[in-house]
Write a structure and sequence with these properties.
The protein is an alpha/beta fold and 250 residues long. The strands form two sheets. Strands 6-5-4-3-2-1-14 form a seven-stranded mixed beta sheet. Strands 7-8-9-10-11-12-13 form a seven-stranded mixed beta sheet. Strand 11, helix 6 and strand 12 form a beta-alpha-beta unit. Helix 6 crosses helix 7. The N and C termini lie close together (7 Å). The mean pLDDT is 98. The structure holds zinc ion (2 copies). One zinc ion (ZN) binds next to loops.
Length: 250
């Protein structure tokens, strides 16, 4: 299993970090996790065409995690000389189907015309998909925001989405080979719906994970500072995500 960070940033513009997007490769399959604005361009830069996406997993319905879905659906109806016929599966939190309906009502050209759009809303627990198991847990960032544990090829990847420190998230991350965890701000920043380095590191420590990859950094958040702050709590490998980083999960 391999993950490419397409967007390690937030909703705020940043030169080296665009909004949330992660490309997961499991064998020949490519699965996108979150699709914030800019994700499709970064996907192209990673060598994958928007045409070839068949499955997208969404953590929650905030702009920086979903806005390029509008672009994608429009592109599927507006690519000269090409028609999408393969089904597209959207997997995500409660409310996703109604949200997509609302998007289609607002943006007249994006409703699927030549292919089936299959929307799967998850609740906490495990679901089997072809080639991988997906386990979801609530993250406390919004009422319906989910984190995901992906098990495939004898490896485990956990992606927090946007989160706060909860026992459910620590349990979801148990013994993960890679834990991609949001770390929006440095210590000392007041926040009640995001994580700072100590919170991310406490989750990593409680879950006894191997590698903590901090992501979703706001532009003013310094890589070296948050890595050092996390290292005071968690003794394992810590790195800080940038767009384009590729990590093998095994
Ligand atoms: Zn976010
Ligand atoms: Zn959010």
């Amino acid at each position: 299993m391999q993950v490419t960070v397409l967007g390690a940033g937030t909703v705020l513009p940043a030169a080296n970090r665009s909004s949330s997007g992660y490309l997961l490769r499991i064998g020949q399959d490519e699965i996108l996790f979150d699709i914030g604005p800019g994700t499709l361009s970064r996907l192209l830069a990673a060598g994958v065409s928007y045409r070839d996406l068949n499955r997208i997993v969404i953590t929650h319905l905030h702009v920086d995690h979903i806005l390029d879905l509008v672009t994608l659906l429009q592109a599927y109806n507006a690519t000269p000389g090409w028609e999408r016929t393969a089904p597209l599966q959207l997997i995500g939190c409660q409310g996703l189907a109604a949200f997509v309906d609302q998007l289609c009502a607002v943006f007249g050209g994006i409703g699927p015309k030549t292919y089936a759009l299959d929307i799967v809303e998850l609740v906490p627990g495990q679901t089997q998909f072809p080639g991988f198991t997906l386990e979801a847990a609530l993250t406390g960032h919004t009422d319906n925001s989910l984190a995901y544990r992906i098990t495939a090829e004898d490896a485990v990847l956990v992606y927090s989405g946007d989160a706060i420190e909860t026992p459910e998230l620590a349990d979801l991350a148990r013994k993960a080979d890679l834990f991609i965890c949001e770390c929006s701000f440095p210590e000392g920043t007041p926040t009640d719906n995001h994580l700072t380095p100590h919170g991310a590191a406490r989750l990593a420590k409680a879950a006894d994970i191997s590698h903590l990859l901090l992501t979703h950094l706001y532009p003013a958040t310094d890589d070296a500072i948050v890595a050092a702050e996390a290292a005071t709590v968690f003794a394992g490998t810590i790195s800080v995500a940038r767009d384009g980083v590729v990590v093998e999960v095994n």
